[in-house]
Amino acid sequence: MGDPLGRREPSPVATQLRETASWLVDLLFERTETVSAPEPVPARACRLATGKRIAFCSLVAGTGATTVAALAAQRAGGAGSTVRLIDLDLVAPTLSLLAGERTPTLLDALAVEGVRGRKWGSAFAIFGAERDPGPEVGEALIRFVRQMSRDAAVVLDTGTLRDRTDAILRACDAVFYVATPRAAHVHAATRALPLLEGLAPPARLVVNRSTREAAEAIARELDLSLAGSIPEDPFLARDEFRVRAETARAVDALLAWLA
Questions:
Q1: Residue 229 CA to its chain's centroid (Å)
Q2: Using an 8 Å Cβ cutoff, are 172 and 193 in contact?
Q3: Among 46, 116, 144, 185, who pairs with 79 as Cys (CB 3.0-4.6 Å)?
């Protein structure tokens, strides 16, 4: 048997043709494989009440916590809620990369009274700080989150769990830990469990890029309640902020559970 790694590499033209064909399939059919779609959720069931504070977090980067938070904010906003999406990742904020916008930042909102976010799609976004504001702003961040929720629902991307994250999570009405079926991400989730202890209500699990069956197995392994699973999506895999119908319905089901 020949060495499978010794195969001939395709030419640039062949690669371009393959990528173009893949793009056309996605464009025409919005899918590349058969996926069992959740039942549609009525828009009114996806609305988030004013004052609601929801956080998405993970222990490591790469699970898609920012993307899931952004999708939840956009779908709730599209259903008729007033939603603020805030990037509180103090290590590597990435919401601005999805939105293609950079201002207002978290530092702007902390420094200037009256900053309420830039309209991005169906939500108002406050993007991550260009630098870590330092440990002394912990209490200020909690007051800020509460202030932002006075006239809107707030969806937080808290980034990777760290010391300052704990108090912010405790100020939220719901906390979702985001993982994927990758072994490294499941292992990281087991290490995150002590950091999630004592939250009221308890943190729940969202498994990204997963089938429902795999997500349920991971939830059993972690002994966490499963809030939802987000299917693999070729659009998101290419860093395009658009989704297939199955993905949108999975996010809607998560929002309906929250409501």
A1: 12
A2: no
A3: 46
pLDDT in tens, 7-24: 343 454 444 555 455 545
- Boundaries of domain holding 175: 43-258
Q: How far apart are CA 137 and CA 133, in angstroms?
A: 7
Whether residue 229 has pLDDT greater than 80: yes
**Distinct helix (H) and strand (E) counts, the chain:** 10, 8
> How many Å apart are CA 249 and CA 229, to the nearest integer?
10
Domain membership of residue 23 (yes or no) is no
Measured CA distances, 15 to 20, 25, 42, 67, 239 (Å): 9, 16, 42, 28, 19
Q: Measure the CA–CA gap between 151 and 84, rounded to whole angstroms.
A: 9
Contact between 127 and 99 under an 8 Å Cβ cutoff? The reply is yes
- The answer to whether 48 and 259 have CB atoms below 8 angstroms apart is yes
CATH of the domain at 106: 3.40.50.300
| Domain membership flag for residue 70 | yes
* Structural domains counted in the chain: 1
The DSSP secondary structure of 238-250, one letter per residue, reads TT-S---HHHHHH
Which of these ranges, 25-39, 115-129, 204-218, has the smallest mean pLDDT? 25-39
Q: How many CB atoms lie within 10 A of CB 159?
A: 24
Q: Is 54 domain-assigned? A: yes
Kindly state whether residue 69 falls inside one of the protein's structural domains: yes
Q: How far apart are CA 48 and CA 46, in angstroms?
A: 7
